[in-house]
Amino acid sequence: MNWIEIPPRAPEKIKALSESLGISNVLSRLLIQRGVSDFNAAKTFFRPKMSQLHPPNLMKDMELAVARIILAMEREEAILVYGDYDVDGTTAVALVADFLQQYYHKVATYIPDRYSEGYGVSYQGIDFASENDIGLIIALDCGVKAIDKVAYAKEKGIDFIICDHHTPGAILPDAVAVLDPKRSDCNYPYKELCGCGIGFKLIQAISMALEAPEEVVYPYLDLVATAIGADIVPLNGENRTLAYLGLAQINSHPRPGFKAFLETFNKPVVTLTDLNFTVSPRINAAGRMVHGAHAVALLQTKDMAQAKQMAAAIEDNNTERRSLDQHITENALKQIDGDLETTNASTVVYQPDWHKGVIGIVASRLIETHYRPTLVFTKSGYVLAGSARSIKGYDVYKAIEACSEHLIQFGGHMYAAGLTLAPEKYEDFKNAFESYVSSTLDPDLKIPQISIDSPLSFSEISPKFIRILKQMAPFGPENPIPVFKATGVYDTGYAKVIGADQTHLKGTLTQDGGVKINFVAFKKADALALLTHQKKVDIVFNISENFWQGQTTIQLQLLDIKPHQG
Is 480 exposed, middle or buried (0-12, 13-18, 19+ CB in 10 A)? Predict the structure, then answer.
């Protein structure tokens, strides 16, 4: 792994900010890297408030959307809240439907089946609306490219309001309103909201039109925070404010669906990272293994006993998902190892009986072992369905687009995509994809890289330092968990291999015989020899907290270990 240290920006600004805030130069350096360069910006960064959110009516078509929803209420029309089966889609559906149901009784929800309908707006969903005399569909986290399907709905007398965050095409669907900050004609100041975030702006606007108190939308911030973390959108600007406030809601008044998952989670404060590793995979598991409607029901229930029952069923789905994930990953690795073309720039594997719901996870797992753009295919009806994942800095969507002549359809973004093709086109596509990747992949990207925010000595890790570092959360894209480097450290003699599969390390490190700090290093068991006999090493790490038997201690999470270069 290559270590790349981010050079300090404007040393004079670092010093000035340190003096203004009364913090160390390391912390000031982190803030300036995140665009926080003065006292007022720091105040906004550390203390997000609802008042920092932009007025929802700045979004193009928002007033049209609100007017149509209120008209539906006045006409006693049934409304269908429709969304994708992933975390962003299901949280958005739960948010908008639950809010509307406070004021109106004819509100239903619809999540497409992952396998029979696929992603986004479906003809089957529109037919369901028609058969049930539904006059208005609110599509969340999807629909901005559903031109033919919106036209089909219009023929049946059904109007659409689209709330999407994906980049639109040259032509927008003929909907009553298309809420998408990425529209070229939308002047909304913040462009990076997730689908659930746009749903939240919609209910904000509706509450204002209904002259309801601002507080009525607060309970839904927990859903927005969960979606922000799961959808890997930037954690700056409005997203940071929404995530911060949503986490406060979860920690003070968790909804029964979250409480059911978190009640055995032995931590005093739930973070966005905790949600990403506990709640989000389980919500996703419902859509992957059974149906996303189960997740919506869990997120909407007000009954704790019912929430526990639903959560237990989804937990079973997640256990099954993990088992399939592990099994398919093992099979895929054998397939790669059996391939003579080990020098390929890409990985493309296929087996007809692999579970479609986990092939994206498997693609990510394969990159951990074979670091290159990866596609995993399985049979889905009469076609092959594939899921793509990429490595840092490489646009896999662009690579797939370059080979689109072999595909039925595809969609996604730089680091993740989905695609379908005819079985007879598989080898042609595989060869074309490998050819494109091999000619466009920069050799420097073939080696995993880790960006280091700042050097940090153990003596600088004080209680005040930790307290301020924690306040920089929630972490995510554009506000990543700070990465530090320490040199010349060594184990105090307690390093050992841990874990059921004996692949992790834990122990205690010191630097110059001073401060001693516990560490954990996931999947670094092969580095044990580097740490024995007080050999000095250089490390790259995050700082985290470990909770055990009611006690909280600071620990380092080692990301990489190398022999000391001093």
Answer: middle
Tens of pLDDT along 110-159?
999 988 888 889 999 999 999 999 999 999 999 999 999 999 999 999 99
CA distances from 529 to 474, 534, 561 (A): 35, 10, 11
Strands, DSSP E only, in 222-296? none
CA 433-435-440 angle, 5° bins? 95
Strands 449-452 and 2-5: parallel
Per-residue pLDDT, averaged over 539-554, amounts to 85
Query: How many CB atoms are closer than 10 A to CB 140?
Result: 30
Question: 518 and 506 in contact (C-beta within 8 Å)?
Answer: yes
* CA–CA dist 388, 369 (Å, integer): 15
Reading phi first (left if > 0) and then psi (alpha if -120 to 50, else beta), residue 143 is in left
- Rounded distance, CA 132 to CA 111, Å? 15
Report yes or no: 460 and 26 within 8 Å, Cβ to Cβ: yes
Tell which CATH architecture fits domain 336-446: Roll (3.10)
Asked whether the beta carbons of 31 and 9 are under 8 A apart, the reply is no
Looking at the domain covering 451-563, what would its CATH class be?
A: mainly beta
> Rounded to 5 degrees, what angle do the CA atoms 497, 502, 504 make?
55
Separation of alpha carbons 467 and 306, rounded Å = 38
The structural architecture, per CATH, of the domain 56-312 is Alpha-Beta Complex (3.90)
At 356, list the tokens.
């479609």
Question: If pLDDT is split at 50, 70 and 90, which confidence band does 533 have?
Answer: low
Contacts of 484 (CB under 8 A, 6+ apart): 452, 453, 454, 455, 456, 540, 541, 542, 543
Q: Determine contact, residues 233/194, Cβ cutoff 8 Å.
A: yes
Angle of helix 87-101 relative to helix 293-300, nearest 10 degrees?
Answer: 50
What secondary structure letter does DSSP report for 435?
H
Beta-bridge partners for 107: 79
Q: What CA–CA distance (Å, rounded) separates 16 from 483?
A: 23
All residues at 6 or more sequence positions from 115 whose CB lies less than 8 Å from its CB, including other chains:
356, 380
Q: Which two tokens stand for residue 514?
A: 């001073």
The pTM for the full model equals 0.92
10 Å CB burial of residue 80 (0-12, 13-18, 19+) is buried
Q: Which two tokens stand for residue 496?
A: 């050992």
Q: Give the whole-angstrom CA distance, residue 561 versus residue 514.
A: 20
Report the alpha-carbon distance of residue 359 to residue 159 in Å, rounded. 35
Grade residue 74 by pLDDT with cuts at 50, 70 and 90. very high
All structural domains of the chain with their residue ranges: 56-312, 336-446, 451-563
**Which class for 380: exposed (0-12), middle (13-18), buried (19 or more C-beta within 10 A)?**
middle
